[in-house]
Amino acid sequence: MSDTAPERVDAAVSYSRHDEALVEPILTALRGEGLSIWFDKDIPGGALWEEIIARKYRAAGALLFFVSKASLASQRCSEEVSTARTLGKPIIPVLLERLKLPDDLPDRFVLTLQARNVVEAFNEPEEEKKRGILRALAALGIAGAAAGVAQADSMSATQTRLPQGSGAESSSGAKIAHIDPLAKSNAGVVKASSTISMKTVAFGGAAAATLLVVGAIILMQNTDRAAAPARSATGAPSTSSVAKDAKDEPASPVTPAAPAPTELASGDARAILQQTSYPAGKPIPLRVEGLPGNDNDLVAIAAVGSPAYAQVRYEYLRGKKSADVTLRAVMKPGDYEVRIFFGSDSGEGKDVIRFSAPLTITPAAPITLKMDSQRVTEGQPLRIRYDGMPGNDKDWIATAQADADGGTYIDYVYTKGAASGLAELPPFVKPGQYEIRAYFDDLTSDRTVQARIPVEVIPAPPVTLTLDAAAYAPGDTITLTFADMPGNKKDWVALARPGDNGYLTYEYLNARKSGTQTLRAPDEPGDYEIRGYFDDATGDKTIRATASFTVGEAVAPSPTAEPTPEPTPEAIPEPTPEPTLEVTPEPIAEPTPEDVSQPAPTGEPAPTP
Length: 609
Fold this sequence. Notes:
Elements: E1 11-14, H1 20-32, E2 37-39, H2 49-59, E3 63-67, H3 69-72, H4 75-86, E4 91-95, H5 107-110, E5 116-120, H6 126-138, H7 143-153, E6 168-169, E7 175-176, E8 200-203, H8 210-219, H9 261-265, E9 270-273, E10 277-279, E11 284-289, E12 298-303, E13 311-316, E14 323-327, E15 334-341, E16 355-362, E17 368-370, E18 375-377, E19 382-387, E20 396-401, E21 411-414, E22 421-425, E23 432-439, E24 451-458, E25 464-467, E26 471-472, E27 477-483, E28 492-496, E29 505-508, E30 515-520, E31 526-533, E32 545-551
Parallel strand pairs: 1-2, 1-3, 3-4, 4-5, 10-16, 18-24, 26-32
Antiparallel strand pairs: 5-8, 6-7, 9-11, 11-14, 12-13, 12-15, 15-16, 17-19, 19-22, 20-21, 20-23, 23-24, 25-27, 27-30, 28-29, 28-31, 31-32
């Protein structure tokens, strides 16, 4: 979905990037039901994040907040939930891991999430996760979700009972009976039908403290089973762990001890392990054979001596009579068993262990973490070399406060199945004492710190930003010179109005510590500034340096008169020379005879003619 999609959305989504692998299949399933689902991954590059979030949340029917220790520790998730609350949007928490509510909630979430319907989305098949969320959305009147619920309800009209039987009792003595689908009791508890083993409950009611207890009882109803999966209507665990290809070097197959006669009589079911022991954190490949082919047949690992359904890891066989399976790693060393159960449709024998074989989990091999220096400046890129990881796709390296508990972290990166390599993590953005930590297989939800090294973070040197001018015309090109940035790929500079929390435009510096960057001056006159920030991947918005400038009124160009053409000089004709007049002497007439006069005699006047 892009920003050009229709404005109305059925639900907006908030989750931690750490939980992406768990959340995306759920969102895909919801969109497959025709629901319009929006989350911030759909924000186009260069868009104003805060503005898009606010606009989409206003258009959303509800906010799906995927709750985990990661999202509860995320500042961005906190801001998104706060935005939804400010806009008056219903908030549906979707639990991605088992949490003790409300005790595990940070203070900033307690009031925001009080009296909210909670959907459990851990240890459940993907179909049931989808249905549970559809029910919660349908209860808010979202039409697309209601259609999906109607289809699910047509498949089954049975009701789910609490595991205690007829009811549970809170510390105040209030009985909680099984509840009709989508009907709220006075305690504010919402239950789904038995075809959906996902439980939708409420916690943190503002009216009475006992509501917190009621919510905790329903939500944590299986905690006394050593992390046993929730049972379905047939009594089998309601979901499976995810099988992955093993990274181990296969050892010679070890055939377990022959089953007891009662096990032989049940169909010669057996599990063949490649090894009888594995170190903590290693995936466990095995082969199962001789199953009856029920959909809910399963193979599991459990501590020796534990109840039948106190499973640590398990996998449904989904109707297969034989299969190669890889169970996710067990984290705590000790003596365990591989067990096989039959999930018959009648439910008979659902607590019978049909086969068991011993399995020992040994302590994990030492993990090595190294840095070039364990004293770094804030904003400095972090590169950690690791060695000795067990090779799960979701093994991970994280940063954390030195005094934080094992489940709290700042940022992380998956090793993607590598036993050794280089992990590049977003930097620390505040001075203080921190740690780099290693964890095994995130999909087990285990938060045991397997290795750690301390890191001291000191203040970064001042960043300098210099502009090529103090004032610009609207739309002018601004040339910024920067220096002493830490060199992260997503260090960035932004153009903003002084005092505004947001920004108008931004540019990444692409790992450059110094250099120049061009930006376009705003079209509107006024005062502005360019700000420098460290690594956008951290979500940190600490302004490291500023450079101020103004944009003036656009100056209208003076009208330019039409140029007066140069006069074309008139052609001056070649002067005509003055004619030279030749003096033609008067012809002297020839004297006629009659005119011939005799000259007068000298001294006498000539006669007048």
